[in-house]
Amino acid sequence: MQRIERIIEFLNQQPKDNFLRHALALEYMKLEDYIKARDLFLEILTESPDYIGSYYHLAKCLVLLQEVDPAITWYEKGMAAAKLAKDDHAYRELQAAYEDLVY
Question: What residue ranges do the domains of the chain occupy?
């Protein structure tokens, strides 16, 4: 919990910092608080669709919440964003997770 409290303190100073919001969402994932994690990932990607790293984690979170169709959609959006950003590593990671889920 101490780690979450520290991240929140930093976020109070920089509320739109995607790195901090992403880190907080990952901490919520560790605690299996998937709703809070999902909401943070959605917030990041709604405001910053070029924040490629959050697509994978949002989709993974949605799978854990048994929201498979939205997870598929977010994997697809992530692959499109990664391709646009020319981030081949992220694209392959998203594609592998997508294929594991779909096929």
Answer: 2-102
What mean pLDDT comes out for the span 62-82?
Answer: 98
Check if CATH label 1.25.40.10 holds for domain 2-102: yes
Helices 53-64 and 34-47 sit at what angle, rounded to 10 degrees? 150
Helices (H), 1-103: 2-13, 18-30, 34-47, 53-64, 68-84, 88-102
pLDDT at 13 over 80: yes
Q: What DSSP character marks residue 86?
A: T
Residue 1 has pLDDT above 90, yes or no: no
Both tokens assigned to 69 = 């169709």
Residue 66 in this model has a pLDDT that exceeds 90: yes
What six digits make up the tokens of 22? Answer: 């992403």
Please give the backbone phi and psi of residue 3, each rounded to the nearest 5 degrees, phi first: -65, -45
